[in-house]
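Page 42, continued from yesterday. The earlier attempt failed because a stray header line got pasted into the input along with the sequence. Redoing it now with the clean sequence only.
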Amino acid sequence: MIERVPRGALVSNVEITATTVQRGDVIQLGGRACRVSDLFQLPQGAKQLLFESGELLTIHARSRLVAVRLLRRR
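This time it went through. Structure tokens are written below.
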């Protein structure tokens, strides 16, 4: 389950790849919002994403997905 975003927090839709994905990114998969809890580097630039739900997703080095990212205040 995805925690609620704090009031006043800024979020942004970002295109992510295996290179740019970060812990905390929320990716919409099959109508469900899945938050990335951990990342594992695989050969040839691929990454395996572990979601808070325990599910895994492997993305190829050239895969492109859209995620929601919480913007940090400076």
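Notes: The mean pLDDT is 87.
Reminder to self: strip header lines before submitting.
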